[in-house]
Amino acid sequence: MNILSIKNLSLSFDGKNILNNLNLEITEGKTFAVVGPNGAGKSTLASTIMGLEGYRNYQGEIYFKEQSLKELSIYDRAQLGITLGWQEPARYEGLKVSQFLAASSKHKDKSAIMNAMEIAGIDYLTYYTRAVDKSLSGGERKKIELASIVAMQPGLVVLDEPDSGIDIASLKNIFGAIKYLREKGSTIILITHSLEVLKQAEYAYLICNGTVFDEGRVGKIRKSFEDKCMPCPHKNIPVLSDTGKEI
User: Fold this and answer.
1) What are 64's strand-pairing partners?
2) For residue 234, is pLDDT > 80?
3) For 75-90, what is the mean pLDDT?
4) Angle in degrees, 0-180, between the axes of helices 97-104 and 138-152, rounded to the nearest 10
5) Beta strand pairing call for 156-160 and 59-64
6) Please, which pLDDT band fits residue 193 given cuts at 50, 70 and 90?
7) Lowest mean pLDDT, pick from 43-52, 54-63, 174-183, 226-235
8) Is residue 21 within 8 Å of residue 60, measured between CB atoms?
9) From CA 174, how far away is CA 171, in angstroms rounded?
10) How far is CA 12 from the centre of its chain?
11) DSSP letter string over the chain?
């Protein structure tokens, strides 16, 4: 069963097309990756799925469990069970880590919050009473946000560049959290240009210039990404053959 279906999705800013008739299907309970070079439209896709301000005036359709998201706000989409892990997590002045995690937790008891912190690689004694503010680094806020998603256990998780600002040692916590969420029944979309993150998925879409360039099992898409995107000198434009066909 498809939990998310995107049909002919297009979105423009200042007259420039960022998403171009993009189509993809996300199967419930699986981990998918959306991979592509910088500027391909990956983060725009994530923001459009979540319904962020400025990203709801799109053409085409996004269906979540066969329900159109067209008229739904970010709050409405969150109530349906959709959540977005930001590439640059927000700060919450005056809010403690414990309060932030409790607000999102599916199970409000302290043990569930401690478990989420452990999975995300956050030391309980160090961070439980810390404020989610500018005193935390981007990497620390990233792991706290991940802990909140683990505690939440939403139906659909969109993680935008989950390894951004994370040191190599912490990557195992990110990947462990992805595995934990999948085992708990969450469907996961990884927005990434990282081959290591791509390998955590079961199926992948390669996008370029705001549309799907290729799709398939991760091994196939990894090769396509390495062969076609990484050497490509044209930002956001597929390499064309002499006949004008994408190669």
Assistant:
1) 4, 67
2) no
3) 85
4) 30
5) unpaired
6) confident
7) 226-235
8) yes
9) 5
10) 21
11) -EEEEEEEEEEEETTEEEEEEEEEEEETT-EEEEE--TTSSHHHHHHHHHT-TT----EEEEEETTEE-TT--HHHHHHHTEEEE-SSPPP-TT-BHHHHHHHH-SS-SHHHHHHHHHHTT--HHHHTT-BSSTTS-HHHHHHHHHHHHHHH--SEEEEESTTTT--GGGHHHHHHHHHHHHHTT-EEEEEES-HHHHTT-SEEEEEETTEEEEEEEHHHHHHHIIIIITT--STT---B-TTS-B-
Q: Are strands 156-160 and 82-85 parallel, antiparallel or unpaired?
A: parallel
The tokens of 125 are what? 């004694």
On the 0-12 / 13-18 / 19+ scale of CB atoms within 10 A, 79 is exposed
What does the buried/exposed string (b/e) look like for 154-170 if buried means 16 or more CB atoms within 10 Å of the residue's CB? bbbbbbbbbbbbbeeeb
Higher pLDDT, 214 or 91: 214
Amino acid letter for position 242: D
| pLDDT tens digits along 54-71 | 999 999 999 999 999 999
Strands 59-64 and 67-68, bridge-based pairing: antiparallel
Q: Which two tokens stand for residue 164?
A: 């951004």
Tokens of 195: 């081959």
- What mean pLDDT is predicted for residues 125-145? 85
